[in-house]
Prior knowledge:
Blueprint lengths: L6 H13 L29 E7 L5 H18 L4 E6 L2 H11 L6 H10 L4 E6 L6 H13 L5 E4 L16 H17 L5 H6 L2 E7 L8 H12 L5 E5 L9 H11 L3 E6 L6 H7 L7 H7 L5 E4 L8 H18 L8
Helix pairs in contact: 1-3, 2-12, 6-8
Amino acid sequence: MNTAKNGKRLIESHKRNICGDDPSPDSFGGNEGNLIKDNPLNQDGIGEKEILVVSFGTSFNDSRIADIKGIEDAMQALNPGWSVRRAFSSQIIINHILTRDREKIDNMEEAFERAVANDVKKLVIQPTLLIQGTEYDELVRIAELHAPSFENILLAEPLLGLVGDSASSLNPDKAIVAREITKEAVKEAGFSSLSEAKTKGTAFVFMGHGTSHPAKISYIQMVSQMEELGYDNVFVGTVEGEPEETACKVVIEDVKRAGYKKVVLRPLMLVAGDHANNDMAGDDKDSWKSLFGMSGAFDSIVCQTAGLGRIPSIQKLYVEHTKAACRRITSENTLSD
């Protein structure tokens, strides 16, 4: 475990890991939000049952508190017999936060070491990932590697559930997410309903991350889910441009073809971090806001920079996945598929 006496050495080491021996404070990003509201959840005294909430992470403090901590708090409130702890998978983000804010967040290895040192017997790992992509595969690998250290260990499902094998492979989780994120976006845009927004020529575009992993079909499934719900003025895109059907230029053409003149952009991501604030809502010429504007096809482009993690119904869905894993772990010691 890391203690206060070696904290300074860790910070200096992390500075070098980020950008050399003499980094500028600007390299670590702005300090957005009141850090005192955060809790890195790296305490000992865990007990025998732990829920390890694993997120990629974000250095945007406001979003980390609203989106990641919001889920963690919901986990703890609805699983009183378990200790909730946090781990981030991005070491760069961990380093940024430690160097800039002196807040230490465990990486995966440190979180497992902490669990072992505290004699945890039953460990449920709840990823805050949306899909079963590359990061989920890595979690499976790491969990299998550490499985001998625990009596029972189980990896819970990501937000959108099991990926399925075709564009039409939908499930109740995808339907819940589609309904709830649309409802939040419509409400924030000031409409009483999605139908009202449609009559006023407004389309909603949700920007996901995207991936080259076979799980990229999850984004096409979300497109299918919106269509099944009858959400004609809701579109799904990906910032990484994979799958190709959800690349920004394709989505722009889809919205143009549908005849909508007003666009609301919102992230289909857990946190409103760098992708939401820069790739989507930034002023650079390659941001989605700029690309939609440069198309010349729309009268207005509005950006909603809010992550999924702050939406109570999304928090509830994560908790339900966790609860299902907690129930199973009493009779299983194998990882979920």
